[in-house]
Amino acid sequence: xxxxxxxxxxxxxxxMAMNLLHAGYPLHVYTRQEKTEQLFRxxxxxIYASPKELASHVDIIITIVPATTxxxxxxxxxxxxxxxxxxxxxVIDMSTISAASTKRMAERLxxxxxxxxxxxxxxxxxxxxxxxxxxxxxxxxxxxxxxxPVFNVLGKRVVHIGNSGAGQTAKACNQIIIAETIIAISEAxxxxxxxxxxxxxxxxxxxxxxxxxxxxxxxxQRILDxxxxxxxxASLHRKDLHLAIEQAHMLKLDLPAATHAMHCLxxxxxxxxxxxxxxxxxxxxENPSE
Amino acid sequence: xxxxxxxxxxxxxxxMAMNLLHAGYPLHVYTRQEKTEQLFRxxxxxIYASPKELASHVDIIITIVPATTxxxxxxxxxxxxxxxxxxxxxVIDMSTISAASTKRMAERLxxxxxxxxxxxxxxxxxxxxxxxxxxxxxxxxxxxxxxxPVFNVLGKRVVHIGNSGAGQTAKACNQIIIAETIIAISEAxxxxxxxxxxxxxxxxxxxxxxxxxxxxxxxxQRILDxxxxxxxxASLHRKDLHLAIEQAHMLKLDLPAATHAMHCLxxxxxxxxxxxxxxxxxxxxENPSE
Lengths: 290, 290
Hints:
The structure is a homodimer. Chain A is of the alpha/beta class. The first copy, chain A, has 13 helices and nine strands. A six-stranded parallel beta sheet of chain A has the order 3-2-1-4-5-6, sandwiched between helices. The first copy, chain A, has a three-stranded mixed beta sheet with strand order 7-8-9. In chain A, α4 links the parallel β4 and β5. In chain A, α1 runs parallel beside α6, α8 packs across α12 and α9 packs antiparallel against α10. The longest helix of chain A is centred in the middle third of the chain and has 29 residues. Chain A is elongated. At the A-B interface, β8, β9, α8, α9 and α10 of A face β8, β9, α8, α9 and α10 of B.
């Protein structure tokens, strides 16, 4: 069986890594959290003091961390995997980061005969726990086939989108659509409420027609319940929208509705609501002057 | 069996009326189109020269016409049903029109002991043909129960939203959400294309996650195919967004994303694309300077 390294044992990474352990994969981890280290040691994983130390022991290295610079550190930094990983090692970066940086990192690693896939996910913590994530993969398709069994443990729908960076582009599309759809639902709910109409009835009726969406189902319910426990934190959604708009600008594109969504997420985070679910954008819809 | 009058035998009304005939309802129609008149005469309907002449012969009058003023003419005009309809007659207006005007008309009719439901639909021509419309009903719930069998012929999901006008408010919410979601999908597809990524793959992957929606499914495919045959005409969608924003302004609400969607539909229609499906908003996303 392939030896799997896992770096980034956060809200998403922890259940994903546990699912791999339970599926029988020998797991090798690096984490700066002592509690997490203990949890994985007890579960049977091997612990390392740095990505560099971990890398020579594995066939596959999965990373899922917050920012582009985190991935750069883990892969190319002083203690990065590039210094020790065997030729033929496959890096699977499941973080949501810059598509352009992803391409550059993949090229750097390729010079050392290390393959890299970008494989960001959709489906949230629940999808990570259930192993039902949707995985958007960029990079070489034959490399993808080599690690397909690992993806099958983590997710339900695995789509090869295209070359290196294509997975990140798909994820940017995903985050744009979700943010704009939340705003759409939010405005509709505000209109219903202001007109004295029960928004729960409206949601119920609309789920039967062309306005139906997972966002209307899930985030719509959150807005109705005023329950903004994440879910997916506004601060992370904001980061993702900034990545998408940055990519759009590099491509000289104008995406007015996505830019509006980014500004809403900016305002929400600046008001101190970054830890709430991004459905909390409804707070701004309700109080535009705030 | 209830005698049913039907006024407004257009793209939506014609198949809906035919479904009622096939379900065994004695049908009474008024239309200004000679060809449509002949079609319904041959199918077994009784033909009248005006709404006023029709009204005294029926228990239920269904209207589904383009504009608020059309409904006002049919119900309250010189040749309107108000002059002849029996007490206890039920008017079901399935048009998409102003919620405020709906309330006023319902009050006027009530003085003559005529009940009115607003019951706009979602699901398009296909839903009208298949009898699978989603129907959003405003008005008295006991009146709704009286006509439930008629709704069961026309639609699959019938939701009583609230008092008079509530159905129209729900429809406004529906149209806002669809328009904004089309824009979201449109921007995402543009980003994918510009980044050199196959947007069909992106759509496929995203349908498995939180970005999934009927709009991504249906309108997304239209955008990928550059196939803007309606579907639902941009000119009608524009009219509906104007109704929604007008209602929002009356309620002193700011709905920036819906307002942006309205402006997009305005520009699309002004460019002469009003007969295309509203997914053609993608043409503006592609060429924002146009």
